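Minutes, structural biology subgroup

Action item carried over from last meeting: produce the structure token record for PepSY domain-containing protein (Rhodopseudomonas julia). EB confirmed the sequence was re-checked against the source entry. Recorded below for completeness.
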Amino acid sequence: MMMLRPFLSVFALLLSLLVAGEAAAACLGPGEARQVVASGQAVPLSQALRRAGISGEVVDVKLCEAGGGYVYQASVLGPDGRLQRVNIPAR
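Output recorded by EB:
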């Protein structure tokens, strides 16, 4: 078992790098996001926020592919001053 520990550590590190790389690749750049919204494949952020009933100041947002569709991954500063990370369906 002791001989497997270094191998398992390296395997876990490589697996985490692979997963992180795929997650980053799933989010769109600004130009791609505009095209997806303009084509109707995703609703505008303001509409998605209204549908989800989320209020507050959006301080960061990305449009990402997820489950065959799109979601907004947003950081929202709420009225109470707390920062929340939320996933908002873009359909």
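Discussion: The chain is about 45% helix and 30% strand.
Next step: EB to file the record with the rest of the batch.
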